[in-house]
Amino acid sequence: MSIDALRGFDMFWIIGGERMVRGLDTGLKSPWFSDHVTRQMGHVPWEGFQFMDLIMPLFLFISGVAMPFSFAKRLGSGNDQRGLYVHVAKRFVILFVLGMVAQGNLLAYDLSKLHIYCNTLQAIAAGYLIAALCLMNLRLVGQIAAAVGLLLGFWALMAWVPVPGHGAGKLTPDGNLAIWLDHRILGAFQDRTTYSWILSSMNFGCTVLLGAFAGQLLRSSVQSWLKAVVLLTAGGACFLVGLGWNQWFPIIKHLWTSSFVLYAGGMSLALMGLFYLLIDVWGLRRWAFVFMVIGMNAIAVYMANMLFDFRRIADIFVGGLGKWTGSWQDLIRAMGGFAVVWLILLYMYRKKTFVKV
Q1: How far apart are CA 192 and CA 208, in angstroms?
Q2: How far apart are CA 29 and CA 9, in angstroms?
Q3: CA distances from 277 to 1, 162, 208, 209, 299 (A)
Q4: What residues does 163 pair with on adjacent strands?
Q5: Tens digits of per-residue pLDDT, 291-339?
Q6: Of 93, 9, 60, 51, which Cα lies nearest the Cα of 215?
Q7: Cβ atoms < 10 Å from Cβ of 225
Q8: Confidence band of 244 (pLDDT split at 50, 70, 90)
Q9: 182 exposed, middle or buried (CB, 10 Å; 0-12, 13-18, 19+)?
Q10: Contact (CB, 8 A) for 275 and 5
């Protein structure tokens, strides 16, 4: 239950949480709130980290947590290793295509607007494929070695391989190896942002693997309270290592640097430990129901949120309040849009309709 709740907590910020905080800011008109809370609802331009920079890595991390459960279920229901490979390949393709639909302008049917690799779902697809190959072919020690190798390998490539016209070790938005490779390989189909994707797939895989390590721990026979302690401790350790590495290899989400993987991964591990402790160990579940409803259909609601503006549906019911609510109307619209999405998800939850990929 904690996995679904944490996944729902992550999606909450995408489908309404961020807008509600911004709407509250508009209503309060408080400089303190703007500086200390609303500011965290944005992304840093390049180096550094704010709360919303956690949302994407947490999504990848949770996909990794679910993998040991999913793989064990499939193998236990009679599927052999070959069948699992087929499932992994299908899921990779579906997630990649959905990413092109969500953010790659695939439905514009215009090659001049098409972006091939540019979305969170595609990062999950790449990370999932790398992590799956590790889980299916390596023991735990080998998986850990693979994760360390990915982190160090990405750092070494970024530090030592020269970029034409810029040299080696440059981590500027236009002079780093990762973005240069994207421009060279994707060409006109690159998304024209400073986010890198192809080389960064190495570290997407590492983020998913961190989740898979947590998933294997949760499936183990270790005592429940000890699982929570290990997750919280490992989270703190990764966070500190990432923070320390930041001095030499900066935390840059756009590049998915190795320090960013550990820094965000540490937070993700700690959140997993906290949710597991509260929900599955201590049995405090009622507060998490709103998140569980979202988490059970995370991919479906992510796609719906990318394709539709649910606030417009909410405006049918709350749009007319604007003449009385003044500066609070943004918050009311945000809450209305979230309510529309959540009620649809609640209906799906009650009907046991869960969209899986």
Answers
A1: 26
A2: 26
A3: 11, 47, 21, 21, 25
A4: 167
A5: 999 999 999 999 999 998 898 999 999 988 888 999 999 999 999 999 9
A6: 60
A7: 12
A8: very high
A9: buried
A10: yes
Burial 232-265 (b: 16+ CB within 10 A, else e): bebbeebbebbeebbeebebbbbbbbbbbbbbbb
CA dihedral 265, 267, 270, 272 (to 10 degrees): -70
* Residues 88, 262: Cα–Cα separation, whole Å: 25
Helix (H, G, I), strand (E, B) or coil at 167: strand
Predicted confidence at residue 76, as pLDDT, reads 76
pLDDT confidence of residue 181: 97
Q: How far is CA 231 from CA 55, 136, 239, in A?
A: 19, 23, 12
- pLDDT (tens digit, 9 = 90+) per residue, 276-291? 999 999 999 999 999 9
Size of the chain, expressed as the number of residues it contains: 357
DSSP 8-state secondary structure symbol assigned to residue 328:
G
Q: Is the pLDDT of residue 168 over 80?
A: yes
Give the span between the Cα atoms of 195 and 311, in whole angstroms: 28
Q: Shortest CA distance to 142 belongs to which of 240, 213, 239?
A: 213
pLDDT in tens, 319-332: 888 889 999 999 99
pLDDT for residue 79 is more than 80: no
Closest CA to 204 of 57, 44, 43: 57
Residue located via tokens 């890595």: 57
Q: 10 Å Cβ neighbour count for 326?
A: 10
Interacting residues of 62 by C-beta distance below 8 A, sequence separation 6+: 3, 6, 7, 10, 211, 268, 272
- Taking only the tens place, the pLDDT of each residue in 123-167 is 999 999 999 999 999 999 999 999 999 999 999 999 999 999 999
Ordered DSSP codes for 114-125: --SS-SHHHHHH
pLDDT digits (tens, 9 = 90+) for 199-218: 999 999 999 999 999 999 99
Provide the token pair at 41: 């609802």
